[in-house]
Amino acid sequence: MPQPAALSLKNAVAVITGAAGGIGGALALNLARRGCRLALADYKAEPLAQTAAAARAFGITVSEHVFDIADAAAIAALPDAVQASHGRANILVNCAGAALGGTFAQVSLDEFEWLFQINFWSVVRMTKAFMPMLERESEAQIVNISSVFGLIGPPGQSAYSSSKFAVRGLSEVLRHEMDMAGKNIGVTVVHPGGVRTGIARNARIAAAMPQADADKIEGLWEKLLRDSPESVAEMIVHGVERRKRRILCGSDATRIDVIQRLMPVRYWDLFRKKILPKGNK
């Protein structure tokens, strides 16, 4: 399929989950600066209000929607609220997410289910809910935020990496289905590298993981958070405007992508030598 024509952001209407801060908040301000109207969703009311106020300073219409992204009923009701506030929506950004550290043995079924409700099922539900609205538009785009851990599966990230691989898989299948059906909806999957947001610092740790191991993992991954949310948002918006199907954010993501392609089975042998302290596997 040929690359679709560029997406016009001025006067578009974007629905963004996880918009209270981090990548979602930075995306909201970046799009607002380009004249895009916004429907912002998050469960954190005060930070969301701050993001919305900053976006309104660019002279665009912004609506705020406070709810837990794991709440299926709240998601089902959101399109009507967006329709009432904006009359339409042609960009959907599934950015809300959470992190959970722990090996497969350490992460309980309840913990797996909690994370998948946020990281994966919210993407499915939001996409299902907004598909009729997107189909009415002459040009529309779905943007799903995966991760570099949707490209590789590091030890200790069993639930998180699984959820991000699931987002990647859903995005790729949906893109192919939209293309084959001749739909007007493009699909972009985004794989950010290490971004300085609160997701790592606020990550849950599996109840079965010893605290000493949790502290070690947190310190390790914090060292790898190099990119700012603003720089990542700029890369995403630049790619979405051009309706790119896949966006790798940062040099880390590009390097990881290349290595896992060259060493699809044994990439971790290389990564652990460069990332982990001596003596760790």
Oligomer: single chain
- Report the total helices: 9
Query: Which CATH class?
Result: Alpha Beta
Number of domains: 1
Beta fraction of the residues? 5-15%
Please, what is the average pLDDT?
89
How are the strands of the largest sheet arranged? 3-2-1-4-6-7-9
Can you name the CATH architecture? Answer: 3-Layer(aba) Sandwich
CATH-assigned homologous superfamily:
NAD(P)-binding Rossmann-like Domain
Reported for the largest beta sheet, the result is: 7 strands, parallel
The span between the termini is 43 Å
Silhouette: globular
Summarize the structure in words.
By secondary structure, this protein is of the alpha/beta class. The chain has a single domain, classed as 3-Layer(aba) Sandwich (Rossmann fold). Helix content is 48%, strand content 15%. It contains 9 helices and 9 strands. The strands form 2 sheets. Strands 3-2-1-4-6-7-9 form a 7-stranded parallel β-sheet, with helices on both faces. A two-stranded parallel ribbon has the order 5-8. Helix 4 (109-135) runs parallel beside helix 5. The model is unreliable at 277-281 (pLDDT under 50).
